Amino acid sequence: MANNIRITKQFSFETGHALYGYDGKCKNVHGHSYKLSVTVIGKPIADKANVKYGMVIDFGDLKKIVKEEIVDVFDHATVFNKNTPHVELAKELQQRDHNVLLVDYQPTSEMMVLDFASKIKKRLPNHIKLHSLRLQETDSSFAEWFAYDNI
Question: Which cofactor does it need (predicted)?
Answer without folding.
Answer: Zn(2+)
